[in-house]
Specification:
By secondary structure, the chain is an alpha+beta fold. The protein contains 4 helices and 4 strands. The chain has a 4-stranded antiparallel sheet with strand order 1-2-4-3. Strand 3 and strand 4 form a beta hairpin. It is rod-shaped, with a radius of gyration of 40 Å.
Length: about 170
Amino acid sequence: MNRLVAIIVLVLLALILGVGFVWPKYQRLQELKMTIKDKQEELESRERYLADLKKISEEIDKSSESLAKIDAALPAEISLPDLYNFFLKATSQNGLILRDLTTSGPSSFSGRINQLTISLSLSSSYPSFKNFLSYLEKSSRFFEIESFSFVSPAGKDSQFNFSLVVRTHAY
């Protein structure tokens, strides 16, 4: 009987010591499993986020032509030499004589948008002026015609004198 009690005591002591040493390791293992699960969920979330960013980037690349058109219509800054060149080219291509070109501005229009007013003094026939207005309308740059006036020619073969005030914008 003594031997049986000793075996039971030793088995119980071994179980208690085993549980005492193994239980904290088991709890640590469970904590590590939870940490691994959390990290995997975070990794999956970041992978989904990166996939969404990649998809958005591809959509932006697909619409880069449209964005370029918008950028041309409303450039980031107003470049006076580019505008002067545009009007010189537009008037010469449409058979007009550019007598004078003056600018006023740029001034703030609506928050970040700036506007520039351009006054043009032109000489041409009416059909050439009409073509010029059509050219302005079809250009990639956004122009608003604020006002225009004309003086009719004295003779039948003379040219009209046009005064045109145009406004353009930049952001």
